[in-house]
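Quick one, tokens below. Sequence please?
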């Protein structure tokens, strides 16, 4: 995890000097950016903090020229739709490989 954070553009979300959320972006700063490891602590969910976190990512000055954004989510589709994310238009064009 330490290596992945060190090689990503990271965003923290804080309330009263306590970290309550996190997200990281893997990017080449030109063509693509992938949002990963997004979380907001359970007791802070539903209060707009996730929206604030994603807004900071989407408006970050180093990410303004990104052509293609990506992310995976199991339960926050509504949040990301507010920022222009949609289901894949050509899901058959994408592949993945995972190593156990």
């Amino acid at each position: 995890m330490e290596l992945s954070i060190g090689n990503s553009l990271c965003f923290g979300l804080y309330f009263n000097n306590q970290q309550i959320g996190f997200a990281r972006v893997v990017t080449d700063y030109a063509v693509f950016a992938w949002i990963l490891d997004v979380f907001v602590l359970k007791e802070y969910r539903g209060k707009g903090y996730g929206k604030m976190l994603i807004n900071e990512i989407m408006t970050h000055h180093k990410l303004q020229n990104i052509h293609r954004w990506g992310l995976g989510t199991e339960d926050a589709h509504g949040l990301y739709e507010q920022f222009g994310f949609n289901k894949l238009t050509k899901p058959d064009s994408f592949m993945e490989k995972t190593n156990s």
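The beta strands are 9-15, 18-27, 32-40, 68-71. The chain has one domain: 2-86.
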